[in-house]
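Appendix B.2, paired examples.
Example (i):
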Amino acid sequence: MSSPIGIRHLQAFIEVARCGSFTRAAEHLFLTQSALTATIKQLEQDAGLILFDRTTRRVVLSAEGERFLPVAERLLSDFTAALTDLRARAQLQQGQVSVAGSPSVVTRLLPAALLQFRTRFPSIQVNIRDESAGSLEQRVLNNEVDFAVAGNHSQQPELEYAPLLRDRYGLVVPSDHPLARHTHLSWQAIPDDHLLLLSQDTGIRAQLTRFSQRGDIPIRLDRVQIEVSNPAAMAALISQGLGISLLPALAADVHSFAGLVFIPLHEPQIEREICIITRKGRALSPAAAALLDTLREHLHQTQLPAWCSAIN
């Protein structure tokens, strides 16, 4: 059986070809001359060809060696470039991160954390997707994003859900609404009519549906007549007096809800849990892990909106 041929054989062949001498090539490679000679012999035996013509004064390439030299140089160059690229990525000098998040996460949490990350790692490319809960879970499953930040929409068995923060549910009303003067409300006090909700593909709606089906909240979701797919559209409808809505505190703290009133709900006190969603068995790249660490660090350093708290 022939010896396995690897990068060291290419390095030895190229250096001998450049130096025209086993002695000088061995010195450049920090090898003994006998070790270098054995390496070249292994390469020639595996190829079944003589690559060098040896004379008493000089070592020169054979015709076959002349043809192989540019190929060996290209292979070694490609390998060196690939290894350099891996090291650069490990040292966060280059690379990219793809992350998906619910609208409130992308609007409220990521920008400040991303500013810190870009200051530390300016060469890393970052791709951000604003998705509904069901869509972003699928993107994690398909390896289209490194991780997602959102509520647990469907408890996919192939995904890991690591709790990041929790925020309390409340009622969102116009500032001139009769309920706007309350500092808190019970779920029983929510009017049955004019209730607007996010669509069923969102994590917020999925959670409210589970609460309702278990009897945790006295809300008939089947009576809702208007649904929208994102919180910004919901804010516009509420501002126009088309109804009121149930949202977690973080979702109601974005710019589009300015001028509206968030009233925390109790009896019972219901909270949403926002998680880091990753695929089981898939390690994060160094760049993705660094972005996630920066996000966690930001959450513990910044003042979160009222009724929101980070989970250690």
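Example (ii):
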Amino acid sequence: MVSRISGLLSASFLLLSALPAFAEVAGSMVIAGHGPEQHVMESLAHAFEKANPRAYIDVVWDDNSKPLEMVKSKQATIAVTGTPEDGFRSVQIAWDGIAIMVHRSNFTKEVSKQEVAELFSGKYKFWADLGGPDTKILLLDRPRNENNRDAFEQLLGIVGKIPDTTKVIAKDEKVIKTVAGTLPPNSAVTYLSLGQALEAVASGVPVRLLPVEKVEPETPTVKDGRYPLRRPVLLLSNNEPDPLVQAFEQFALSDEGQKILSESYTPLPKTSSP
């Protein structure tokens, strides 16, 4: 899987040089998803429609949907995912760091990638086992069938290993409040998109993000790959040439599109022209 993802970045920017610069397009399409990308995709779609008045995009988001199946059955044109899939055109438009969040009073210094895997597999019962407080660990999981959850499990090699008894919280806002408000305050831990996590820290919520492999979870470390927990944000579509799909991909990779994406995700590093 790593090799499949690693080629997406260069493929995405090759796409830019292969397309005419912002030729206005017309038509309609549906973008489907079920992960945390809904808001940013709606913003991208709105900006794209503004630049292309004869183009219409419907963003369909449902936690119980199967976006790839919708593309296969022609119910959707693009699926937003975090994993490439054989038989689909795949274009990366951003990176999403996955942050490990605890209460601000939890003094656990850092964790390794292996420790994160073992933590969410239920191996550790007390934070003291990881150099933290002598408090029982409360795991907070995210919904199944969501891009972050799928990527988190795959990155750590723990697919199917998160205990079934773990409490699942769907919304980022709610899981952040739960980490901040659970008693004892230094017990809870969860994972979520880095953008939402950094916003919570900046706004004064009493939470902190654990360094992983001695690397702080920050936009620059996600962009250059030093932070190990990151997933690509991908647009998947059928392989048949579609000018509207290609124009939307190009827009997402443009300076304007990347600026919109940077509000929630880590934009792709710029490459030098050959």
